[in-house]
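Hi Q.,

Before the meeting this afternoon, I wanted you to have the iron/sulfur cluster prediction in hand. No need to reply - just skim if you have a minute. The sequence and ligand are here:
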Amino acid sequence: MSNSSDNAIELQDMTCGFCSCMCDDINITVRDNEIVDTKNACEKAHSIFLHQRHPPTACQVDGQSVSLEQGIRAAAEILKKSQSPFVYGLGQTTTETQRAAVALADYIGAGIDCRATAASGHFTAAVQQHGQVTCSLGEIKNRADLVVFWNANPLETHPRLLQRIGNDSKHVVVVDDTNTATAKVADQFISLENQNNFLAIREIQSCLKNKNAPQSELPENVSPWSDFADQIINAKYGVIFVGTRAIESTAGYPFSAAILKLIRKLNQFTRFSCLPLHGQSNSAGAENVLTWQTGFPFGVELRQGYPEFNPVGCQLGTLLDQASIDVAVCVSGDPHAALTDHQIASLGRNVSLIRFCDGTTERELESNVSFGVAPFGISVAGSAYRFDGVPLPMRIATASHLQTREMVLQNIQSELESAQ
Ligand code: SF4
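Predicted structure with the ligand bound:
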């Protein structure tokens, strides 16, 4: 921290929470509890840091402003009467909040999920079956000579990622169906229809098999992926980043499983890793917290008093379609992002909605109880996980007049416990 002459304070090496890169070298200048400048932040983060507005009210019940205590009592009352509550939206918040959300779900016997859509768990489900060779951002920066972005466009989704891995000294390949912004600056672009992702990985696998086969047994038609297979085999240290479009496609699971098996195979020849490039910050934390508290990374039912893994059924969109929940607790994020209009319409009407908003990305939505909370990434201390699974500290840049999500969740649970 350094002070300048005009009472401005520069907070150094702050962690940015606005994408899963979680850049931890951001300098933020604060004057009179307001962010006036940043250094090292990308354009997107700089704009959020400077223009973030804290929600004006601590709480609303049925659209009317009430005190926080009244809101907590109203939320507890709704949850007490609920037969089938559901807790979701665990990204873009601290690990401490995620832990409080799991504790509340456990206490009320709710289902809980951290996925935006059922499909976003494909990669994690494949990791459970096949394991994952992983690595840290530091290893990529210092050791990798080949980086592949498969259906990932970090220049738009994770603007500083290329800079942070030191892309100038590496061969960067983009495999995608569109000539994205990242593809335009990459050393090589391989155009591939998304629907052929799985087949392409199978082709690369068979090219690798042929590497060990005698020349006479090689097929006559050499695969178009043969050169790419040579490239990855000859890398000293390679990494494949898999984007959400590949993971969340209909063939997301077989593709994820195939790429994880390919990476294992590649480690017989050289050193190779694979990382999913999730958009939301601290998605990795949500899976970690759910796993260490329940034994499962997503889609967990706690209704029976013990955790049950229900990856297909325990997902907000599915549950709204089946009309099988009566209360939804949205801890973080914007429900509009992943739900259909029909599903959105049932929230707050057929299904009571308890919602937390910090003014970052949320759109208007009819809620039974809506808590205005301190903005994540600006006014909340705690920890959060980068996409490579490294936990980082989150520090407060400007103080908020509002409570944190963690505190409100804990207070709702205390209210329920005291009513017992
Ligand atoms: S790349 Fe992501 S984490 Fe880094 S400054 Fe930009 S939004 Fe923040």
